[in-house]
Structures are given as C-alpha cells and as structure tokens.
Amino acid sequence: MPLADKISPAPLEVRLAGAITALPGLALLVLTVLLLVNSFGEAPPSGNNIYAELAYYVVLAAATLFCAAGLLMGKTWARSPAVVIALLLVGVGWYSAGPASQPLLGVPLAVIGVAVLVLVFRRPSRAWALGQADDETEEEAAERGGAAGRAARREREEK
Predict the structure, then answer these.
(1) Are 106 and 92 in contact (CB under 8 A)?
(2) C-alpha distances in angstroms, 29 versus 50, 62, 65, 99, 109?
(3) 3-state helix, strand, coil in the chain (%, to 5)
(4) Do the Cβ atoms of 129 and 141 come closer than 8 Å?
(5) Tens digit of pLDDT for each residue in 64-107?
C-alpha cells in the first residue's frame, strides 16, 4: 500500500503537533547514544545498570516517535498520547525551570509541551478528531460517535 493511501487528511495544526512531538523523541535518541558512548571504557558505578537505562530511553523514544508519526500521518489515535506526552513535558519543564534551577532546559521543554497542547486543542484539530462535517456542531458530531460514527455510516450507505 502506498504511503499516500495511509495518510489521512488532517489539519495543519495536527501535522505541526506531530512534528513538534517528534523533537523530544529525537532528543531521547541522542541522549541514548551519548550515554552509550560515554559508558565505553568505564566501569559502571555499583548499583547502576547502564543497559537497563539505555533500554528505557530507547523505549520512551520509540513510543514518542511512534505517536509523532501517527499525528504526521493524520491518525486520530495519536492525539491522546500526544496530549499525555505534552503534559509530561510541561511538568518536567516546570520542575526543571523552578525547583531544579535549570531554566535553560526547563523553559524550552515547557514551551514544546504547551505548543503541542495548543495545537491539538485548536478548533480545526478538534473538528478533525470528531470527524465533524462542515454543517454540524461539535455536539452533533460527538452524538453520532465522531469519526468512527461517520465511517460506520459511510459503510452502511455503501452496502
């Protein structure tokens, strides 16, 4: 199946949120590589399993990038995980900028999280997630079951 057939139509806000969501995933991959390179030639401190730490970061990076790819391809399932990732970024950014006294790290993380939240909750993004038609309200779209309800109705009409 060609990639163009897998990509669903989604508003620009959703695609931007996907691109921004990919940034922390890519940063986690860079962190993983740096930790791996730094671990060569050194004996790990007792009680530290560097391989478990690396595996943890790889799993987090893969999940974040998977979610970002879903948004970039216009998949509605990726919206909720993107919100969770954004909320985590806001929390980590707040802690880093405030109690940890690391504003150079915390402020960009918080800005990335807030940007994703704003993008996925804008009106075009909500209408896309609900499968809202041009002539209906959000409430009407939610009552019929959102995008899944629209797809089911389309299947019934085709039969």
Answers:
(1) yes
(2) 15, 9, 10, 26, 16
(3) 75, 0, 25
(4) no
(5) 999 999 999 999 999 999 999 999 999 999 999 999 999 999 99
